[in-house]
């Protein structure tokens, strides 16, 4: 992508294809691939570099706006972002935690039906795993509920070091069935 620059302002973006300037001069589409940077600059055309906004989709959204920075040989296009409403984020995360917890517990629900119907004891490993899942879910909900801002919410998530160890939060860190012989 390219930008037409005049008087230190981006006039428009050019997406390739033939180009006709304000004076009516027509240029073939290949000028964007065969002309040098200086040749393009001579007619006011700069390549556009879209800057990575490093958006954290859990807590931020793109606004649809952007800014341009005109550099010596190119134009940087930076997209604008804004923080999402923390209360809506928390509400959605709590709902997600509850749904995940239910999905994790669901495959072992039949043990409780069997116990009710036949009086068959629930295996200890199953009970311990289900208890651990509930404890983890309850902690996640408590932690999410206590958050008051974006940084606090971001801190709830795991951060993995080079050795694969979690040095961050515990949200979405559910017990592993293998640890319960399942």
**What best-fitting shape do the alpha-carbon axes yield?**
elongated
Fraction of helical residues: 25-40%
Separation, N- and C-terminal Cα atoms = 53 Å
Helix vs. strand class: alpha+beta
Strand content: 15-25%
Total strands: 7
Biggest pleated sheet: 5 strands, mixed
The mean pLDDT is 95
User: Any idea what the radius of gyration is?
Assistant: 28 Å
Strand order in space, largest sheet: 2-1-5-7-6
How many H/I helical runs? 6
H/E topology pattern: EEEEHHEEEHHHH
Give start-end ranges of low-pLDDT stretches.
Answer: none
Explain this structure.
There is one protein chain. This protein has 182 residues and is an alpha+beta fold. It has 2 domains: 2-83, no CATH class; 86-180. It contains 6 helices and 7 strands; from the N terminus they run E-E-E-E-H-H-E-E-E-H-H-H-H. It has helices at 31-34, 37-42, 86-105, 110-118, 124-146, 150-154; strands at residues 2-6, 9-14, 19-20, 26-27, 45-51, 60-70, 74-83. The strands form 2 sheets. A 5-stranded mixed beta sheet has the order 2-1-5-7-6. It has a two-stranded antiparallel ribbon with strand order 3-4. Strand 3 (19-20) and strand 4 form a beta hairpin. Helix 3 packs antiparallel against helix 5. The radius of gyration is 28 Å and the shape is elongated.
Please outline the helices and strands.
Layout: E1 2-6, E2 9-14, E3 19-20, E4 26-27, H1 31-34, H2 37-42, E5 45-51, E6 60-70, E7 74-83, H3 86-105, H4 110-118, H5 124-146, H6 150-154
Parallel strand pairs: 5-7
Antiparallel strand pairs: 1-2, 1-5, 3-4, 6-7
